Amino acid sequence: MIDAVRRFEGFEEVQRVMACALERVRDRFDSHLASDLPAVDRLVRHVEHYRGKMLRPMLVIAGGLATHPQAATTPGESLGSLIGDDHITAAAVCEMVHMATLVHDDVLDEADVRRGGRTVSRLHGNEAAVILGDLLIASAYHLCSQLDSQRSALLIGRVSMEMCSGELLQLHHRGDYSIDEATYFEIIRRKTGALIAASGELGAMHAGASPEAARAMAWFGSRLGLAFQIQDDVLDLIGREDVVGKSVGRDLAKSKLTLPVIHHLASADAVERGRSLAAIDDACREDAPPEASRAVRQRLDATGSIAHARTVAGALVAQARAALDPLAPTAAREALFAMADAAVDRAR
Amino acid sequence: MIDAVRRFEGFEEVQRVMACALERVRDRFDSHLASDLPAVDRLVRHVEHYRGKMLRPMLVIAGGLATHPQAATTPGESLGSLIGDDHITAAAVCEMVHMATLVHDDVLDEADVRRGGRTVSRLHGNEAAVILGDLLIASAYHLCSQLDSQRSALLIGRVSMEMCSGELLQLHHRGDYSIDEATYFEIIRRKTGALIAASGELGAMHAGASPEAARAMAWFGSRLGLAFQIQDDVLDLIGREDVVGKSVGRDLAKSKLTLPVIHHLASADAVERGRSLAAIDDACREDAPPEASRAVRQRLDATGSIAHARTVAGALVAQARAALDPLAPTAAREALFAMADAAVDRAR
């Protein structure tokens, strides 16, 4: 009982340390992106509206706290000392790389809404959005170089390459109604899993964690990333724009087949499959009416394909949690567990 | 006489060493960009068609040869030993950053032709072009991290940020008929001069050059870069597509005012200025007929504005040459002089 209370108290300390660290990450992000050119600075400030849950910075910070060699022996009130300046920088780098992909995604998706606000591409045109995304990538690498850690730089470079190849693979399979689950997972591992895995790993690396602990954090992040993307894809199919905070139904409109649809097509019999393909084809048209995607959703329900995707995401969260078994049972690890659970238990 | 011949012979050796080094740069570029995903690899191979003069890699190599502490005492047949593996990597990095901007520029410019071939955006769509550009940037940074030189990484990161801010500044002043020369120079210093300056500086840095020699190379590159961009802008106004090898007349079509036009508007009297603005406005329309830009060219000639731009470019080349005064008078320095002269004395 006393132990449980102590863990709960530790949990509050972790929340406080993380909130404080995230505030510093926001400052580092903004100050590094600030421009001496007023016209550029105005555009850059629009990126603030894209800021969401800050999942990747949270993972850097919580990963650092949970894997630090002194994690188990540091009292709650001293936890903040485990987070160094490099954690703040690494967290800002991960968020910048992520933001760059959001800005470019909006160009690719022709999306109108992001985090409940107008997108850069819609407000300032595609050209501004392309260059702003480039500026975010450049800033991320410049900031990353300040870490003076070749390992971090190589990791961020490699992950950025993987993200692009994942996007290109996805583009290649657009409109491919025979795409299989393996290809879907290859796409989301690269485009989403890799950076979230790197966030966890960077947190551990800059805490001086053991190689085993760093690997555990990378694996935790990669499983969490996949679960997160599957939930995103489910929300794009069944979510409401005003709740999700970004345009929904974009995947079908862009002929992007995600896990529920892939599962459905693989499990329906020949006749139903034919009908589903026709329904999907209708929903894939650029100006498809809302009924078209509603019809697809009903067909997905018939094969339990939304439920299947949720089950897969849940299993990935379980794998993520299991990856942290070797770590000391600290409040920071509890925070990571909570983040994993939240990834699939969210409406946005 | 004997001395002149010896210098000429040395010049041939420098040419040979550079040709050999550029071959290695091409290999490093291609192998670093190669993907394990066939769909991605096919797209990446299209970048080869973008390859042009390789000005930036040439500057890294020639800069390394000209500033090496043993530059003056190394016999011609041993010159190759002054170029290390890091020079090849740094040169490939500079070319990748440049290629990324070319690919994204074609999205922004809606250009059809680049280096005499179809652009990625035209062949595979804007989405593929945006992600391919991102992949090039990511690859450049990943490769740059392999140098294990924080100074190089910070330089490439800073320069990439400057390039983006230059592009954004240019975008901001699109359709601004009162843009002045100072703003034009600020734009081209960032978007073109910075990377060419960095190429020279990286060549010197990785040759173990003195800080003075590295600064001289950076200044040489920055002046050369400005001259190069002015010549590019002149060619866009007066060049022929089949000679220049890329779409011409794009600047006016995108309401981008360059040095000759800015000079003309500043030097014409009020009445002529009014007429010119009308002519420029006609040429700035998306579907302007060829006569429209021809009319602008005639008006530019009336104020000698093309000649003015060429004079400015020539003066910048002279400044570039003067920057190399402190370097030993080697054949490599002659090669740099020749590159500077070629920048303004070209039809493409």
Keyphrases for this structure?
two-stranded antiparallel ribbon; Farnesyl Diphosphate Synthase; 348 residues; 15 helices; disordered N terminus; mainly alpha
Architecture of chain A, CATH level 2? Orthogonal Bundle
Beta-strand content of chain A = under 5%
Helix content of chain A: over 70%
Query: How does the overall form of chain A come out from the CA principal axes?
Result: globular
Tally of alpha and pi helices of chain A: 15
Task: List the quaternary state of the chains.
Answer: homodimer
- Residue windows where pLDDT falls under 50 for at least 5 positions of chain A: 1-6
Number of domain modules of chain A: 1
**C-alpha end-to-end distance of chain A:** 35 Å
**Biggest chain-to-chain interface with counts:** A-B, 44 and 44 residues
Looking at CATH, the homologous superfamily of chain A is Farnesyl Diphosphate Synthase
Describe the structure.
The structure is a homodimer of 348-residue chains. With 348 residues, the first copy, chain A, is an all-alpha fold. Chain A has a single domain (2-344), classed as Farnesyl Diphosphate Synthase. Helices cover 74% and strands 1% of the residues of chain A. In chain A, α12 packs antiparallel against α13. The interface between A and B is large, with 44 and 44 residues.
In brief, what are we looking at here?
With 348 residues, chain A is mostly helical.
